[in-house]
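User: Working on a comparison across species. This one is KCIP1 protein from Dicaeum eximium. Can you predict its structure so I can line it up against the others?
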Amino acid sequence: DASMYAHYLFNAFDTAQNGSVKFEDFVMALSILLRGTVHEKLRWTFNLYDINKDGYINKEEMMDIVKAIYDMMGKYTYPVLKEDAPRQHVEVFFQKMDKNKDGVVTLDEFIESCQEDDNIMRSLQLFENVM
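Assistant: Here's the predicted structure for KCIP1 protein from Dicaeum eximium:
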């Protein structure tokens, strides 16, 4: 079920937060994701996770995103996902990203942590040869 993740993705594309995505918004986001700098891609990704757009990612927002991703993956993954996998994923995310341990992740903490992680940096390059 990808409906919840699609909802969060739509909100990230809806830069005016008016319930619609203009073609220009769509093209700009694709441009960032395909050809943007590392900082632009990470800023866009942070915006996806910052559901309430307050400039911070809190555990509830991250849990909502992670649950949406797990719902999209389905119940029949291999290896089988444990019931508390989303919560564990969020805890690992915060251990890595919440540098000052204040319970929220700022854009600066997010960018710094992502740049320190080779897997994340490689994943940002996945679409560079698409076009």
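For your comparison, note: The radius of gyration is 15 Å.

User: Helpful, thanks.
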